[in-house]
Write a structure and sequence with these properties.
CATH architecture: Up-down Bundle
Number of helices: 9
Strand content: under 5%
CATH topology: Glycerol uptake facilitator protein
Number of strands: 0
Radius of gyration: 16 Å
Helix content: over 70%
Number of domains: 1
Oligomer: single chain
Shape: globular
Structural class: mainly alpha
CATH superfamily: Glycerol uptake facilitator protein
Largest sheet: none
């Protein structure tokens, strides 16, 4: 029992650290006016997560197909940790001179919450596809350039397309102080969409891709 608790705590802590990195990435995105530059800089969050072995839900859910049932616990504690990390960064930013990013976050959040749930699911699905590709490329490609370029391209594409990343949105909603039952519902749909998209592409990789 003690070993399991230590393992769950490990998942949670790694999830919190990943959430913090997504929060930092989201902060720089909100701080720059050029969306292309912002999307490029945002990718530093995922790059750091992959390099240091942190737990990001959207980077791990696609591997549920090749893991044992216990992997579900890792996903659950990772997701909780991601929320804690993003929420913490969002609230801490409001205590600094950069608190004006909350206005930018609020505009972004309003667009998301005024969308319909089917649209949110579809946009989240495509983000999940790109997240699996980015993380799996980092895991499987041996060349350093290939590892990193995949992360930056996939992150830039999902941001510039307006696809929905559930963990990044946790940060935007937190810094915008816009949490409600409706927000929670939308985040759950985003998590579901990210999960389905990631698993969808993982099915292809596991079944048909021959390296």
């Amino acid at each position: 029992m003690k070993k399991k608790l230590i393992k769950f705590l490990d998942f949670l802590i790694k999830g919190i650290y990943a959430g913090v990195m997504i929060g930092i990435a989201g902060s720089v995105y909100l701080s720059v006016s050029n969306h292309i530059v912002g999307s490029f800089l945002f990718a530093l969050g995922l790059l750091t997560i992959c390099m240091y072995g942190m737990n990001l839900y959207t980077g791990k859910i696609g591997y549920v197909l090749i893991n044992k049932l216990d992997y579900l616990y890792e996903l659950l504690f990772t997701l909780i940790g991601n929320f804690i990390g993003t929420f913490m960064v969002g609230k801490l930013m409001l205590l600094t001179r950069f608190k004006n990013i909350s206005k930018v976050a609020l505009e972004i959040a309003k667009v998301k919450l005024n969308d319909n749930l089917l649209s949110i699911f579809i946009l989240s699905f495509f983000c999940g596809v790109l997240m699996y590709i980015a993380v799996n490329n980092h895991k499987k490609i041996s060349g350093e350039i290939g590892k990193y370029i995949g992360i930056f391209l996939c992150v830039m594409v999902f941001i510039l397309c307006g696809f929905e990343h559930s963990i990044a949105n946790m940060f935007y909603f937190s810094v915008a102080s816009l949490w409600s039952f409706k927000t929670l519902l939308y985040v759950l749909i985003m998590v579901l969409g990210n999960s389905c998209g990631s698993i969808f592409f993982a099915l292809f990789y596991n079944k048909f891709y021959k390296n």
